[in-house]
Write a structure and sequence with these properties.
heterodimer; A: mainly beta; 2 domains; 5% helix; B: alpha/beta; globular
């Protein structure tokens, strides 16, 4: 999920009431969740309610916005990000669906 | 213009005292002498609700200190609260609203588990980034990996920051960590956020620190050696890390530093207290502030430049890394270290001929920054 400005097209991983680029308040959610992993690194001191260790990944959603997600493995290439903050490798099977 | 005329600090660490008792320990030596003079109290604290189930902390503190009728406010700007509180205190004096402002920084953190503390502090991130499992320490891992890749910096660069700051803390009786470490020990310690290890992060600490501010004109009636706030700058960046154009630059630090140095009319400082929540931050912040050359700051750590006797001493107190990081107290404690250094009262960690110093109090991961330039002369 990313959020885009209807007026100028600015997109962000985080929701906002107002566009930081043009000031428009017409922000809408887009169900885009496929992108490319830019960098993954392991975290072993994690917050309450999370697994004891996981990989954090910085991903780019279709060239529109950067996002963060976590995975049980270090990811490269095409990934899918779920709304619960988890991402996984995009398989060929998934790509064909 | 405003000066620091008195200061006091508790030992940082896992303390048995509660939050109010820590505040009293840091403050009683000042108010014993100057209680009747103080006309405003600014409290730097962020998590008394989450950590200690206390709200309205500034008023609770004023009452506990027997200053029931002195106006007070609390400043909450996460890890940057201390710098912001000093900014507010200075502004109160500059504007004429107050004449003598007691700035108290305090946090009691150690009653929560590491997982709870990590979670509470991560609440400063937007919910989408928090839900992904992002934390403040994890961002330091990202920064370290990118810094190494971009500037071909060896992994040991960050370890050397920890070695230096652990050494400096050994010279500071108020520091939490009293232990020397070697590069090898740092590298072999448990990984917290890849590639950074345990010794490269600030510990969970309790502590408090207080300073008294007055106008320059009044300062000499309080002490023979006031320390002057020559310049102060504050700046912000997006709290959404994923929205930042350059994920490894600290825009707020760069901008706050430029404003503070311009206001102070100085180009060079003799020492700096930086926000080394993680070792990599000290290097990147020093570069953003122009204390070390951009992209080459890591080299200074192999050459001893940032040691107490080096050309640019950084974190003589031990820094957040080893002195400890009781969130609301840290920025005030940085000012207190500058106060000691510029009065030639820093003991074994004294920087020779220190006349001008700088502190960086940073919120979140550069979400905002306050840079203060201090001088032995106005």
């Amino acid at each position: 999920m990313i959020y885009s400005c209807k007026n100028c097209g600015y997109s962000s991983f985080v929701s906002r009431a107002r566009c930081p680029r043009c000031g428009s308040t017409e922000i809408y959610a887009i169900a885009e969740n496929e992108g490319r992993a830019l960098l993954c690194w392991k975290l072993t001191a994690t917050p309450e309610g999370f697994e004891d260790s996981y990989y954090l990944c910085l991903i780019n959603i279709n060239g529109k916005a950067n996002a963060f997600c976590r995975s049980n493995e270090s990811l490269e290439g095409d990934v899918v990000e779920e709304n619960n903050g988890i991402c996984y490798r995009k398989t060929k099977e998934a790509a064909n669906n | 213009m405003v000066a620091i005329v008195a200061g006091h600090i508790t030992k940082f660490g896992k303390r048995k005292e509660n939050l109010l008792q820590l505040v009293a320990e840091a403050t009683i030596p000042i108010i014993t002498k100057f209680a009747d003079e103080i006309d405003f109290v600014v409290v730097s604290n962020t998590y008394s609700g989450e950590f200690n189930s206390m709200s309205g902390l500034n008023n609770l503190i004023a009452t506990y200190l027997g200053m029931d009728y002195v106006p007070s406010i609390r400043v909450d700007n996460t890890s940057g609260s201390g710098g912001s509180a000093i900014l507010v205190g200075k502004s109160l004096i500059d504007s004429g609203i107050a004449r003598r402002v007691l700035v108290i920084g305090a946090e009691k953190m150690s009653e929560k588990s590491t997982k709870q503390v990590t979670s509470i502090i991560a609440s400063l991130l937007p919910k989408e980034e928090r839900n992904a499992g992002l934390t403040l320490p994890s961002l330091a891992g990202l920064l370290a990996k990118e810094y190494m890749r971009k500037y071909s910096a060896p992994r040991e660069s960050f370890a050397l920051v920890a070695v230096k700051n652990h050494h400096n803390a050994m010279l500071n009786p108020y520091a939490h960590i009293q232990k020397e470490v070697t590069v090898e020990e740092v590298l072999k310690a448990p990984i917290i956020a890849e590639p950074l290890t345990l010794y490269e992060f600030s510990p969970i600490s309790d502590g408090a620190c207080s300073i008294l501010l007055t106008s320059n004109e009044e300062s000499f009636s309080f002490t023979e050696r006031p320390v002057f706030i020559k310049g102060i700058g504050t700046a912000s960046d997006s709290s959404s890390i994923s929205s930042r154009e350059d994920i490894i630059s600290l825009r707020s630090v760069r901008e706050a530093g430029a404003i503070a140095l311009k206001n102070a009319k100085v180009e060079k400082v003799n020492f700096a207290e930086l926000h080394d929540m993680a070792t990599v931050l000290e290097i990147v912040e020093a570069e953003e502030l122009g204390l070390l050359k951009k992209g080459e700051g890591w080299k200074a750590y192999f050459e001893g430049v940032t040691g107490i006797n080096g050309e640019m001493p950084i974190n003589t107190s031990g820094g957040l890394n080893s002195k400890g990081h009781p969130i609301g107290a840290s920025g005030v404690a940085q000012a207190y270290e500058a106060f000691l250094q510029l009065r030639n009262e820093a003991g074994n960690r004294q920087v020779k001929d220190a006349r001008v110093g700088l502190s960086l109090s940073m919120a979140g991961f550069g979400n905002s920054a306050t840079v203060i330039v201090y001088g032995a002369e106005p």
